[in-house]
What we know:
Blueprint: E1 12-16, E2 19-23, E3 31-33, H1 45-48, E4 57-67, E5 73-77, E6 83-92, E7 115-116, E8 132-140, E9 150-155, E10 158-167, E11 173-176, E12 183-184, E13 199-200, E14 204-214, E15 217-219, E16 221-222, E17 224-229, H2 243-253, H3 265-278, H4 284-290, H5 301-307, H6 315-323, H7 331-339, H8 348-351, H9 382-392, H10 418-428, E18 451-453, E19 456-457, E20 474-475, H11 477-480, H12 504-508, E21 534-535, H13 538-545, H14 551-559, E22 562-563, H15 576-586, E23 592-597, E24 607-612, H16 618-622, H17 626-631
Parallel strand pairs: 1-16, 2-17, 3-4
Antiparallel strand pairs: 1-4, 4-5, 4-11, 6-8, 6-14, 7-20, 9-10, 10-11, 12-13, 14-15, 14-17, 18-19, 21-22, 23-24
Amino acid sequence: xxxxxxxxxxxxxxxxxxxxxxxxxxxxxxxxxxxxxxxxxxxxxxxxxxxxxxxxxxxxxxxxxxxxxxxxxxxxxxxxxxxxxxxxxxxxxxxxxxxxxxxxxxxxxxxxxxxxxxxxxxxxxxxxxxxxxxxxxxxxxxxxxxxxxxxxxxxxxxxxxxxxxxxxxxxxxxxxxxxxxxxxxxxxxxxxxxxxxxxxxxxxxxxxxxxxxxxxxxxxxxxxxxxxxxxxxxxxxxxxxxxxxxxxxxxxxxxxxxxxxxxxxxxxxxxxxxxxxxxxxxxxxxxxxxxxxxxxxxxxxxxxxxxxxxxxxxxxxxxxxxxxxxxxxxxxxxxxxxxxxxxxxxxxxxxxxxxxxxxxxxxxxxxxxxxxxxxxxxxxxxxxxxxxxxxxxxxxxxxxxxxxxxxxxxxxxxxxxxxxxxxxxxxxxxxxxxxxxxxxxxxxxxxxxxxxxxxxxxxxxxxxxxxxxxxxxxxxxxxxxxxxxxxxxxxxxxxxxxxxxxxxxxxxxxxxxxxxxxxxxxxxxxxxxxxxxxxxxxxxxxxxxxxxxxxxxxxxxxxxxxxxxxxxxxxxxxxxxxxxxxxxxxxxxxxxxxxxxxxxxxxxxxxxxxxxxxxxxxxxxxxxxxxxxxxxxxxxxxxxxxxxxxxxx
Length: 649
């Protein structure tokens, strides 16, 4: 597929997506390609698990596009029309990096514990033994598989497989990450959510570059990056603010992208509301507030008709809904005329302290002692808030079409739009909420110094890992964002994931909901779009479908949500420490929440998302006692995940 632009002479090339996302999985040979469109089709459980029930790895596929002298996309370059040699490097720096205490770019960092070196008992040159350098690999040609281009490093004396590179039938690069193996070289258990000494995992990240020749001409090529993250246990979910939303906001603020014009209801407004309703399948609180037949079921035709109307008829409805969103900016700064208020009439800092404001998701400064912090809970990106403010004023494109179908394959997207679609698809399924520290990437991603252009990371001119192992015994906010610091000076392999929890399983098993049960046992929540809190299980789903049962019984089954982590073999009565350690070896036993469609079912949604567990876990599920698991669930309010610091404004 080629562009029809008049200027079709290719003078340069660029790799897309600018950041690709791999995910670990314990299937030894099977994998799937990660999302390449922003609204992919739902898949069956076998898409995500192999025949043994093991989780397949998510691969990241990279493509090269030829650009003309105006920077416009001409066509995709493949092995059919170009000579392409791929280069990649992977590393894991977690154990040689610093503890995560809190995002270092927020005011609360001054009152949190200092970020000291992990494994601080390992001194001097010996610290290089903590850095897992998977090395560099080069690959060209079509269908290059067979595990010959692997990234293998060492943690102390332990060999660690970080992934491998392959190509598809058109010579596109396909990157695979680790198998989800985490271990402690001393045999010690994990004791905390994020900073466990002696531990390693097989997540990683690193640069992707390519040598490209077309018709004998060697082209300059914009590089890319790949990140290996934990599994996605809710593949059809998006958080209210995604990583794409955050990166887009950063690029607009830095003038890397133009200011957005009049927002589209379908593409800019509706997704914000729709995502909150969709979270009903992964969190019981969202199910009650935004779910099926709830007061704010934003997927209902009644709501869609009102939300998409530009007239004054529903302006007060739009205004009232907007006022529910947490907002750290003044209303006047966003859209003063729409509200007819002055900045002094509105104190956004105080309003943002309320856990009842939308979205019901924890923020970067989540802490039991941080009730005076405006960053205790999540806010939308500024561009999202600006779009909503214009929507309130009726200044938006009323393009809602109930029959609209988003492209489900990249081949359905015009070639000139494919790079943007690949970029959005990769980042839309990554989180930009609660950098505590996060799922895929964390707080450095909101700093413009990380980027060479919109969505594309700046590569270091000094890529040798041994030159970047630490910046002293403690990493302070000033050092972190300094001109020669780890953010602004350009990225090296392992430089993105080193800020994350070690091992990733302990954080995934710790990021839950309702830490303050006096408020609500399910709200606010951390990362339900990637790590479910509660789910409609298979047993209740089948009860809902059984129309021979009384409607009240079916409704009770529909409203009941199982605690997702109860699928761990350690059982529902386990302590917090037992759960985070069990997660290390049994992360594949947890359910994947996937859509299931049953037409003709009355009184319930046609499509419901259901937690689907591997077959070998069925016997354990049958033994569960719902009353027992609710009564014995660990109290997480006392864990260090929820007690980072005491904030005084």
